[in-house]
Amino acid sequence: MVKQMKKLTLFLIIFLSFAGISAPGVLASLETGDILVKLQNSPKVYLVRNNKKLHIKTIEMFNSLGYKWSDIVESSASVEGIPRIKLAKSSNSPKVYYLTESGMKRHFPSPEIFLSYNNKWEDIVTVSEDLLNFYPQNELIKLMGDYKIYKLENGKKRWIKTAEIFNKLGLDWTKIDSVNKTEFNAYPEGEAIETLFPTPTPTPTPAVSPTPTPTPTPTPTPTPTPTSTPAVSPTPTPTSTPAPTPTPTPGTLTINVDVNTPAEAVVFDDASEVVFTKYKFSAANEAMLIRALKLTNNFNIVFGDYDDNLGLITLSYPSDERGTIEEKHAYFSKGTLTFSEGQLGIYVPKDGSSILTIKAKINTISQGADTGDKSKIGLTKATKQWENSTDNLTDGFIVEGVSSGKKFYGNKDAIKVNNGSVNSIFIRKAEPTLSSSTLPSAVLSSGIQTFYKWTVSANWRGDIGWKLTTFSVTGKLGNNNLTIGTDDLTHRVNFDGVYGIVDGNADAVSSSVVDTRVISNLKVYNSDTGNQIPGAFYYRSRVTTGDTGGYYLVFAPDSEEVISKNSAEIYELKGDILDSSTGIGTYIKTNIASFASSLSANTYDNIVGNNAQNSISDAAGSIPGVSFVWSDRTAEHSIYTIDWSNEYRISGIPTDILTME
């Protein structure tokens, strides 16, 4: 019955811990406030205190703390959800220690260092002095992201210069703990350890040793055996002996473009900390440290030096098991940026993941950034850099297992990544805003009428220009649906008005029935000045029999329309409605077309096609793919520069439809 009650108590503690609820009532049911837990089929025994766990590593430790084997609760429930005790102090001292993952303790020299790790005072667990004494001092440290290993001696840090010295001193690579800059700088720099300590002998210690001591080489803690189990234990068995730590299995690392990596987007010059890419690193078997990596942008020596667009590059990542964020900075050179071994320390927890965020400062146009350029930043692959394919990284990518010490290299060890989801970031100087206005009259009647009225604005950043707008025009006049272009029998000209469909028979040139033109003389005007904007209209004609909807009218001004920064221009689309075309049930609906095209930036002709007339014709498949073609007018701007764009999403083509009826 007692054991069943203990199992129930453990279950409640684990359940409440997962739920984020403390269990003072449960803990108070035991005299010491502690629970000893042993998992089935495992020799590990844990002390659970204040909803946190502590591994009792040896039988000697267990016995010295005065615990009884009969107090252990054996359970099949997992304790993975209970956090380990990381911050501890004894009841006899104000000193606060960090208990490392490898089973050591390190004293926080000051409250400032304690708080620099985002620790909370309420997370400190008070334990007995005897328990703390079983934790050896953490003497080996390194600065987060650095490769140099230091030994703490008499309050100073001493650099161990080579791996050979480290190994011959009998030091343990798994006992190294990373510290942040605040703590690292708190330890004064001592003399570097450049030679081996002499093996202690009766002969006099060499004079170069400032403080000779006969301390022998530390011997490892003996592996507990069943014979050390005290006789008072009612059921001592070999299975209760903590097993020796096995040689760690080398870990594995997988890399993916994180789902939160930015989508294709427009950014403006002089923007800071623009997020380009996020990578998700996942480790299995052991924690991993990414020591080196190489980045590439879409530098192209033929089409443009994309390095000119990018200023300071920032890598942001967790550098230790606590999730402490560290940042590294550098610049691209000829399309590449290398962080060599020792410059990085991206920490990826065992069976967990970490995010690397790559950010960049965008240069100004005067600093060399090119408006219209499409920059990308990503980990360098051996081939097919931006294609949607899994490929090896280069050998410039180096990752090391924290426990095993084994190093892996990108191409050599086939560490793969798919950069297909790394998106383009478009550089812009200024942006337009489009908005619809109210029609002078919404009543459909004969004569010259305004079908659509809209405003194009430029923001404070600079001038903008536009050279093409596509309208969607639908409706019914003269009891027939509308078509843009010409009638069936005379459709060879580019544009001569809007027709009401009579026979719906597309290009049936033998038909004697002729569609009726209901709108003529379509023109675009500047609403403020009343001046007509010279230009040409193109159309998308019927391409299938019975085609009665989705007709587009394209207007391309002869000269680029320029809107100065901090100003706006209002435009009107007008046409002459013929007397015979109006009547009951007739209407015209007009709006700027909004095509679901992807971002683009290129010369004017490449945005709209070879030229507006030929790309928007009366042939099948001739639906326009451009809504509003504009430029932010660089210093060397012309229709041949690549600062043109069909990017209606930058501020949003107005979707509202203006209706006359």
Question: What is the rounded distance between the termini?
Answer: 86 Å
Number of strands: 42
Mean pLDDT across the residues is: 77
What is the count of helical runs?
A: 9
Radius of gyration: 37 Å
Which structural class matches the secondary elements?
Answer: mainly beta
Task: Tell me, briefly, the overall form.
Answer: elongated
Beta fraction: 25-35%
Brief synopsis:
The protein is mainly beta and 661 residues long. Helix content is 9%, strand content 34%.
Plain-language structure description:
There is one protein chain. By secondary structure, the chain is mostly beta strands. A hairpin with a 5-residue loop joins strand 6 and strand 7. The radius of gyration is 37 Å and the shape is elongated. The N terminus is likely disordered.
Strand-helix topology:
Blueprint: H1 2-18, H2 24-28, E1 35-39, E2 45-49, E3 52-56, H3 59-64, E4 72-75, E5 87-90, E6 97-99, E7 105-107, H4 111-116, E8 125-127, H5 129-133, E9 140-143, E10 149-153, E11 156-160, H6 163-168, E12 176-179, H7 181-186, E13 252-257, E14 265-268, E15 274-284, E16 288-297, E17 310-318, E18 325-330, E19 336-339, E20 346-348, E21 353-362, E22 374-375, E23 377-379, E24 390-392, E25 398-401, E26 407-409, E27 416-418, E28 425-428, E29 432-436, E30 447-458, E31 464-477, E32 480-484, E33 498-500, E34 516-526, E35 535-539, E36 552-557, E37 561-563, E38 567-577, E39 587-592, H8 604-608, H9 612-615, E40 628-631, E41 644-645, E42 658-660
Parallel strand pairs: 1-4, 5-8, 9-12, 14-28
Antiparallel strand pairs: 1-2, 2-3, 5-6, 6-7, 9-10, 10-11, 13-15, 15-21, 16-19, 16-20, 16-23, 16-25, 17-18, 17-21, 22-28, 24-27, 25-26, 29-30, 30-38, 31-32, 31-36, 31-37, 31-39, 31-40, 32-33, 33-34, 34-38, 35-36, 39-42, 40-41
